[in-house]
Every structure is written in C-alpha cells, then in structure tokens.
Amino acid sequence: MAKQRSLAQGDVVEELKLEGDVSGKTAIIVDDIISTGTTVIKAAKLLKDKGCTKLIVFAIHAVFAGDAKLVLEQTAIDRMIVTDTIPREASDLPKGAEIISVKPLLEQALMVQ
Predict the structure, then answer these.
(1) What phi, psi does 50 have (nearest 5°)?
(2) How much of the chain is helix, strand and coil, in % rounded to 5?
(3) Residues near 59 by Cβ (< 8 Å), separated by ≥ 6?
(4) How far, in Å, CA of 101 to CA of 113, rounded?
(5) pLDDT in tens, 34-84
(6) pTM greater than the 0.90 cutoff
(7) In terms of DSSP bridges, do strands 2-6 and 98-100 run parallel, antiparallel, or are they unpaired?
C-alpha cells in the first residue's frame, strides 16, 4: 500500500492506494506504531473491499490512544500482533490482539562480550 498524508490537515492519512491484487489472499499489514488506529482501519477496509480473505496486522508500538481499542475491535482484522515496547495489560488491547516480547532480542543485542 502507498499512503499519502495531508500535513495541512494535521498529519491525517489522505489517501491509501493498493498496489497489486489481494483477492482471495491473506494480507499482512506491518506498521511501526498504532496510535489512534485510523491508518490501520482505513487499510483494513480497503483490503477487505478488494477481496482479501484474511487480514493480519503487526505493529511494533501499541499506543492505542483515545478510543482506538474499541474502534479496532469493530474492524475486519482477523489477527493483531503487537510487541511489548509499550507495557500493556491484555485488557488494554483490542479483543483478540496478542503481545509478543522483544525482551530476548534486546537482551541479545545489548550483551557485552
């Protein structure tokens, strides 16, 4: 997907363009951060409208600002995976979302030999 933001409107996603055919396929959205969820929601709707059969979202930072949790629960996302870079209780996540830990990766990267 190609995303175009409008800085004049407060950094709002103005347009999403889909590159390629997703009909009958599993689509995977990889994003650095989910804050309000607006971009992921728009992307999910576009992908489902274009015929993807399963939608998986993966994000590094799970902010879930405002009512993002509730809004994301009402989308067509089949699976959501986020990391623990921002501490979250399971009850703070949209229903069905999973947390994976980056702790082992960071420990390995920071090991002093």
Answers:
(1) -90, 5
(2) 30, 35, 40
(3) 30, 31, 32, 33, 34, 40, 80, 81, 82, 83
(4) 23
(5) 999 988 999 999 999 999 999 999 999 999 999 999 999 999 899 999 999
(6) no
(7) unpaired
The pair of three-digit structure tokens given for residue 112, joined into one six-digit string: 């002093």
Domain boundaries in the chain? 23-110
Q: Is residue 49 classed as helix, strand or coil in its secondary structure?
A: helix
- Specify the amino acid at residue 47: L
CA distance 83 to 57: 12
111 contacts 77 by C-beta, under 8 angstroms: no
Q: Which residue, chain included where needed, has tokens 């949790």?
A: 69
In terms of CATH architecture, what is 23-110? 3-Layer(aba) Sandwich (3.40)
Across-strand partners of 95?
none
- Give alpha helix (H) positions in the chain: 38-49, 68-73, 103-110
Q: Residue 84: what residue type? A: D
* Structure tokens, 18: 């889909």
